[in-house]
Amino acid sequence: MPEAYLWDRPDGGVPIAVAASGPSSSALAGEYADGVIAVEPDAKVLELFDEAGGGGKPRFGQVAICWGPDEADCRKRVLDQWRWSPLGWKVNAELPGPDSFAAATQFVREEDLVRTVPCGPDVDKHVEAFNKYVDAGFTHVAFVQVGGESQPDFLDWAERELLPRLRT
């Protein structure tokens, strides 16, 4: 198969981070993983991670945003593509498939989403979302831009406006 490649592993191994959202997963990540990943800026998750042996290891936060020149369009995009986010990790982790997600999110409104996913062109909203993770103790924060069709424009905007603000 011409698309398959076998790469040598690095001598030191491949670092593995484990997603955590509560006591059990935080303890598991702290004991066994090289880092922790979380999708909520929850300092308690990091505290539990540290208590289980995670002190000094990387802490990766993932913050969803929906940048675009029109906030109303962004809100619609989030409702269409990210409507499960206000349910929280405990619910999302237990849903078995697409039908369950559809049923669980049928009553989610745009107003519910903007509490967890900043939308629109206002750089301050996106910086605030980022800072929640920094304030909670995350060492690395990744933005997840909702909407594949908006990625090129988002990356241009991030280079011009968002990243300079985060570096100050």
From TrEMBL:
<protein>
    <recommendedName>
        <fullName>Luciferase-like domain-containing protein</fullName>
    </recommendedName>
</protein>
<dbReference type="InterPro" id="IPR036661">
    <property type="entry name" value="Luciferase-like_sf"/>
</dbReference>
<dbReference type="GO" id="GO:0016705">
    <property type="term" value="F:oxidoreductase activity, acting on paired donors, with incorporation or reduction of molecular oxygen"/>
</dbReference>
<dbReference type="InterPro" id="IPR050564">
    <property type="entry name" value="F420-G6PD/mer"/>
</dbReference>
<feature type="domain" description="Luciferase-like">
    <location>
        <begin position="4"/>
        <end position="140"/>
    </location>
</feature>
<keyword id="KW-0560">Oxidoreductase</keyword>
<dbReference type="InterPro" id="IPR011251">
    <property type="entry name" value="Luciferase-like_dom"/>
</dbReference>
<dbReference type="Pfam" id="PF00296">
    <property type="entry name" value="Bac_luciferase"/>
</dbReference>
